[in-house]
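Hey,

Quick one before I head out. I ran the complex with SAJ overnight. Inputs first:
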Amino acid sequence: MEKLRLKTELINKVRNRNAKIAVIGLGYVGLPAAAVFADAGFPVAGVDIKNEIVETVSQGKSDVKEPGLNDLLRKVIIKGKLKATTKTVKAVKKADITIICVQTPLNKRKQPNLEYLKKACKKVAAGLSKGKLVIVESTVPPGTTKNMVRTILEKTSGLRCGEDFWLVHCPERILPGNALKELTENSRIIGGYTKDSSEIAFELYKRITQGTLLITDCTSAEIAKLSENAFRDVNIAFANELALICEEVGVDVQEAIALANTHPRVKIHSPGCGVGGPCLPKDPCLLLHPVARKKAKFGVMKPSRELNDYMPNHTVQLVIQALKRNGKAPEKSKVALLGLSYKGNSNDARNSPAERIIHGLTAQGIEIVVYDPLCEENFGSAKARNISEAVHKVDCIVVTTDNEMFKKLDLKKVRALTNDKPVIVDGRRIINPSEAKKHGFYYVGIGYFHA
Ligand code: SAJ
């Protein structure tokens, strides 16, 4: 009876938007989530162990570069709906609902490092009391919520999951760079440890998103989340393998994929010079974690990951071959690399293929100048202030992201600034090969390599 009373109480608080929320981890996932819940009217405590983050957020600012996020933060901080703090246990004690959004990176051996999550869970458990809901939004290996998270919460608090408190895995699904829109529009998967857990979380997420709310159990939610990114990674690997085949047989992979994609049930992704970011390179490894010792049977996701990981090296090889074919010694050549972020039109340099390409080219003694007006990173290379400065007296231009501005390069103007016999290595296939050739470039692209 008490359980039902506590559940009804919490649901009513959620419906009245006065359920207090603590969001643990104010990074790329937690901070936009905290701001959106606060904007929906909930009193939110944003918790981070880093003082600098708490200070910045308290001033209504953030280092997480998401369009619209600073404006929203300012609004909810001024309204008093969002307060940032370093005190996890205190914030959890006051909260009715705690949402864990800490990072779950890979270690050097590409195994999940769950230390941040464990520490967060211990602190959450120390502040836990009856009638509360704990939500894990962090991306985790299958089984983590119902095993590791539940066990830590129960052991440290002495409470029983599903009886005294509720537990849900509600994976984040936001596209970095479009977080606010996706948080309020995307469908969400609600993986409850019990039916009651899902019911309460359903009421909560209904208040921030117009998307459909899909109810399941914790582990199905974990697998679904991981498979979204693993599917994308495998699909891109397939496109990359096609690109390598096309380079061998002298076919343009872009044309081949466009033709194949006219079939109503085919949707091949785009090949490229690498797959970066915080999610795609990591999530297949988390998904494979439970079967890590049975490697032989699982031969799709791991080789796909390896192929995608190889693409920056392949791009380096294309640059070297193209320079040599044009009578240029790599160690005496200068390359302009356009695009530093991990994907186009983004300022985010996490796991960027550009970094590996820069290191590979530098190792060959190639001089590099980088250019990306959207991204602050330079990966240790000289950085040009504009495109003219970038391509001045270079032997080769390597395109690493599909930024809108790189698609509109004035090839005639660029050609007038480069050295003789210039090369373009198009890592994103955004430059028209005929146009490039017309303006006197030797054009090489992923999936378009002519010996
Ligand atoms: N890429 C390709 N070819 C493609 C598509 C992408 O080479 O056809 C490359 C991009 O250049 C980039 C990398 O893949 O380097 C990843 O970019 P992305 O746009 O696929 O995705 P992310 O990492 O920014 O965000 C993904 C999204 N997942 C899916 O679209 C299935 C997002 O919705 C997730 O919320 C996010 O991961 C996450 O946080 O898990």
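The chain is about 45% helix and 15% strand.

Talk tomorrow,
K.
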